[in-house]
Automatic annotation (TrEMBL), chains A, B, C:
Binding site for Zn(2+): H16, H41, H43
Required cofactor names: Zn(2+)
UniProt record similarity statement: Belongs to the PTPS family. QueD subfamily.
Gene3D superfamilies cross-referenced by the UniProt entry: 6-pyruvoyl tetrahydropterin synthase/QueD
Native source organism of the sequence: Paraflavisolibacter caeni
EC number: 4.-.-.-
Top-rank taxon, per record: Bacteria
Biological processes, Gene Ontology terms: tRNA queuosine(34) biosynthetic process
Name by which UniProt lists this protein: 6-carboxy-5,6,7,8-tetrahydropterin synthase
Amino acid sequence: MKRVAVYRKEHFNAAHRLFRQQWSDEANAATFGKCSLPHYHGHNYEIEIKVVGEPDKETGFVMDMKKLSDLVQEKVISKFDHKNLNLDTEEFKTLNPTAENIAIIIFELLRPHIDPSLDLFIRLYETPRNFVDYPA
Amino acid sequence: MKRVAVYRKEHFNAAHRLFRQQWSDEANAATFGKCSLPHYHGHNYEIEIKVVGEPDKETGFVMDMKKLSDLVQEKVISKFDHKNLNLDTEEFKTLNPTAENIAIIIFELLRPHIDPSLDLFIRLYETPRNFVDYPA
Amino acid sequence: MKRVAVYRKEHFNAAHRLFRQQWSDEANAATFGKCSLPHYHGHNYEIEIKVVGEPDKETGFVMDMKKLSDLVQEKVISKFDHKNLNLDTEEFKTLNPTAENIAIIIFELLRPHIDPSLDLFIRLYETPRNFVDYPA
């Protein structure tokens, strides 16, 4: 069985701040530092979607990258691009938009729409020097 | 046992089109879209060769990167660089040159020439935003 | 259990040469080539520190990246940055400073200072085309 991983990169820009509503402003500042400043800041988020499976005998594709790209646009990019994650999205109304949590949410948005025979992994770059993988 | 992975990047440029000979032109166009246009298109392919093993006690090397680079030049780059994969190579005369299939072929070209105690993995970038790993 | 990997990139510049003291100059030249030239050469080393664990329920962090970055500065960068690895560091007085060995040393410098519940992995780029992972 020849399992291959295919990767597709997409991106979105969004504002956020790290902030836990149950905590005081002082507690937020002490834990999250500049990332908690009240007027938000932004990132150029890069998403790397990894899909693992056997290439189809006829097409040679694990999954059509055009279809994967369209799916990510529809389920993820159209939701988050140029939004304020804390204010404008249902997902992060109460959930702290750390890179870890954003990657988990992106996984959960895509997983139901990808063939169950394929494994899915998300890498999210918050900056070129800070990024996360889910699942690890 | 201290297993280390060492990586070496190499590159080649080649033309290809995605095309299944057993299908009609219409079927190819419907499945592969612009990637099937009849006059071919090209990519700057980047290959990342990963070799895993224990560093040699004396040299501190898992494998001499110069020897690995020379091997990749001889077995892979000299075959595919500046070629039309569909027309000019034995490997893709009938096999559709998807990134998945090219990565599998590169693995098979290199595997016999690398010490059996070492594991081998291939990553192939078709573009900076589309890439594959084999084995996954 | 939702395990997430978080990555932080840091960098340092250093001189080194590949050289095994128990060998003659000729044997070193034959094995290490230009990497063994007597007057040293340098690299812009990039370190990618990967830490794997469950995000904290309150903060949404696997580990505070600011704390990780500070730790890497203190334990690794301050030791190696702008140094001659062969001449100026205890670690490589007798150990050959291959990328493999540098990655293992960085792992050993950091591991005692990271929560035992978290897994640690090091990637070291010697150049953009030559890099290693430890553990593999």
